């Protein structure tokens, strides 16, 4: 029997606490019934609803037991198309905070930090004599 394929459009529809799909390594999982049992709390999973959770899943370093448990919720393989919608992975569009840790710190931020450090030491040297 051929494995079921699930489109990106379908995954995007399942993004609520009661109806929650995630994708890990192009496999789709319906984890709606696992929320209460998740050791990291349900909010972690709700934040990943309807999106590609491969990065966060790998970053946590789940045990083999956790990986085996995930397979119990497997419902099919993700069908990606070039011209179709893409699954969000990070940022506000995906329901996250909007912070993307993969982006480098901008030079202006480094300049700000440098100015603050210099100001701190100047204050200590000249004001707090």
Polypeptide structure, described:
- The protein has one domain: Flavocytochrome B2, Chain A, domain 1, CATH 3.10.120.10.
- 36% of the residues lie in helices and 18% in strands.
- The chain has five helices and six strands.
- Strands 1, 2, 3, 4, 5 and 6 form a six-stranded mixed beta sheet that branches.
- The relative contact order is 0.17.
- Residues 91-101 have low confidence and may be disordered.
- Belongs to the cytochrome b5 family.
- Residues 3-79 form the Cytochrome b5 heme-binding domain.
- One of its GO terms (biological process) is ergosterol biosynthetic process.
Please state the second-level CATH architecture.
Answer: Roll
Largest β sheet strand count, sense and barrel closure: 6 strands, mixed
Estimate the global geometry from the Cα principal axes: elongated
What is the CATH level 1 assignment? Alpha Beta
Instruction: Name the helix and strand elements from N-terminus to C-terminus, one letter apiece.
Output: EHEEEHEHHEH
Overall number of structural domains: 1
Q: Quickly give the structural class.
A: alpha/beta
Helix proportion of residues, in percent?
25-40%
CATH topology description: Flavocytochrome B2, Chain A, domain 1
Q: For the residues shown, what is the average pLDDT?
A: 83
CATH homologous superfamily, by name?
A: Cytochrome b5-like heme/steroid binding domain
C-alpha Rg, in Å?
Answer: 21 Å
Q: Which band does the percent of strand residues land in?
A: 15-25%
First CA to last CA: what distance? 81 Å
How many individual helices? 5
Question: How many β-strand stretches?
Answer: 6
Low-confidence stretches: 91-101
